Amino acid sequence: MDAIPPAAPPAPSASPCHGGRDTFDAAARAAGKTEVMDQLMKDYPRGPHDQPQSMCPAFGSLRVGLRMRRVATILSGSACCVYGLTFTSHFYGAKRTVGYVPFNSETLVTGKLFEDIRDAVIETAKPEDYDAVIITNLCVPTASGVPLDLLPKEINGVRIIGIDVPGFGVPTHAEAKDVLTGAMLRYARHEAEQGPVARPRNYKEARNVCLIGELFPADPVGIGQILAPMGLAAGAQAPCREWRDLYSALDSVAVAALHPFYTASVREFRAAGRNIVGSGPVGVDGTAAWIEAIGLAAGVPESQREAARQAVLPAIRGALAANPIKARITVSGYEGSELLVARLLIEAGAEVPYVGTACPRTEWSDPDREWLHAHGCHVQYRASLEQDLAAMREAKPDLALGTTPLVQKAKEMGMPALYFTNMVSARPLFSIAGAASMAGIVAAQTKGRERFGRMVSFFEGVGTADGAGYGFREKPVDPPGFRDRQRKLRAAKAKSEEAVGT
Ligand code: SF4
User: Which residues 6+ apart lie within 8 Å of 56 measured at CB?
Assistant: First the structure.
């Protein structure tokens, strides 16, 4: 029987979703999580906003675990957080069980929660069912110092991975994907360093390039076509779909950080001696530069790099010319691919004055940031919703690509808008397929501008401010005399305050 961890301090009462980040951070450090919090602060630096403005960050790591074969996921956190996370994961089609270890003040304060977690992990870790069990501390257990590092590393051959994913330490759900991916790569790297490991299911002997990021399914195929003339192949993706794929990801000749926020994962690839290449093969300029960078990283001679350029660049140029975009577009999102999307739009002919991403600035998006600056586009890292909205109001775009609240605001203003995650991330971005993919939706949406204008004037004044809500059968009317009385009360109050001291 392992030692019972020392009693945790009382749980903080404020939810980090609504403030109290400093309180939670201080509580976590006082409870022995200083190293964890320091690493999170280093990996995911803060920006203009210090709170997640999108969904609970832990959804990112939860989703990565749920998408893996033979991997169990267990959450430890407040019931409301777990309800929201499981609801969202099933909304996105998880079709998998999410384990939950509940707690109350007593189990939290006495350390019994840790024992409950350990029992749950032991019960779940059946080698006939699972390769790994992921247990995640959400906000309150992290702030209370529940020591997942004291769990056994392995039970009957099933790996046990404990991670802390607090909303007060991981700013976006994108970066939470990296927390889990990095933790699994680290475990797999140590396994590989100790001796032979299982052969990945679909492993092909080739000079593979690992692709970092959750990609549209056609993208690895397109990237594979770019790599082929260089004697390279598109290998495993990180996040992976199966534990064994982690070994082939680590075994790559080079690593493409297509999504540029996987800081912890990159640390593991570097520890395994791999070269990392930023940006991605978007448009003509982006693809040419990426071929050069990935070719050099993998030791490919110039003749083969030139062959790769000749094989793909004319086709990308042709696809862009055949699918021109004539519109002013602002881009905002939290996926990490916003800069790449903006590059593609500009190469297709669009004017993109602003791109905002909730992700932090890293060295792997530097080529994109520099290219966008040179093409008159403002790049805002760690963009807040307020910054995205201000940019949209100022730029008055023909089309705004953004998050749900931004799209809602754009529609209120009679402006065509598209939800980045559902519409932009759900189509190819790279190589030839990517070059042709955006024009259709941009044209369809911008054509509807006049229709949006008519909708705004039709609904003018209905269902906004204090007239919003359900149950009105007619256009809501103010209670008679209400506003007038309030105005007079305010005026009298202001007058009495003016009179003080005279
Ligand atoms: S776990 Fe997520 S939902 Fe719960 S308090 Fe933290 S950030 Fe909010």
Answer: 17, 81, 84, 85, 88, 138, 167, 173
Half-sphere exposure of 228 (CA within 13 A, CB side): 11
Helix (H, G, I), strand (E, B) or coil at 99: strand
Report angle CA 198, 202, 207 to the nearest 5 degrees: 90
Cα three-residue angle 150-140-53, rounded to 5 degrees: 125
* CA-closest candidate to residue 472, choices 464, 481, 483, 480: 464
Residues of the chain where predicted confidence (pLDDT) is lower than 70: 1-19, 47-52, 461, 463, 500-502
C-alpha closest to that of 415 among 385, 462, 453: 453
- Could you tell me what percentage of the chain is helix, strand and coil, using 3-state DSSP and rounding each to the nearest 5? 50, 15, 35
* Cα 101 from Cα 159, distance rounded (Å): 19
pTM above 0.90, yes or no: no
| Nearest alpha carbon, ligand 1 atom 7 | 167
Ligand 1 binding site (Cβ under 6 Å of any ligand atom): 15-17, 56, 58, 77-78, 81, 84, 138-139, 167
Q: What is the pLDDT of residues 364-378, one digit of tens each?
A: 999 999 999 999 999
Sign of CA dihedral 45, 51, 52, 57: positive
- Rounded to the nearest angstrom, the distance between the alpha carbon of 137 and the centre of ligand 1 is 10
